[in-house]
UniProtKB/TrEMBL annotation:
Organism phylogeny: Bacteria, Pseudomonadati, Pseudomonadota, Betaproteobacteria, Burkholderiales
Gene Ontology molecular functions: transferase activity
Record protein name field: Group 1 glycosyl transferase
Naturally occurring in which organism (per UniProt): Caballeronia arvi
The keyword Transferase belongs to this UniProt entry's keyword annotation: yes
Keywords: Transferase
Length: 64
């Protein structure tokens, strides 16, 4: 999941996305910050501990 301005840019307007990409090309520190935010989000959402916990909850629900 992309959080606008935290882990990337999302917009329905193509020109707005082009502008955001051009901004990131001019500002590598901002690009790095967004990349770090995206990495943090991925680690939180797809970490093996969360995966195991979610499956455990689902199986307990189905079997109860």
């Amino acid at each position: 999941m992309i959080r606008n301005g935290e882990s990337g840019f999302i917009h329905t307007d193509t020109q707005a996305l082009i502008g955001a990409m051009q901004h990131l090309l001019r500002d590598p520190a901002e690009a790095r910050r967004l990349g770090e935010g995206a990495r943090r989000t991925a680690l939180e959402r797809f970490h093996i501990d969360r995966f195991a916990r979610d499956w455990d909850e689902a199986l307990r629900y189905v079997c109860s």
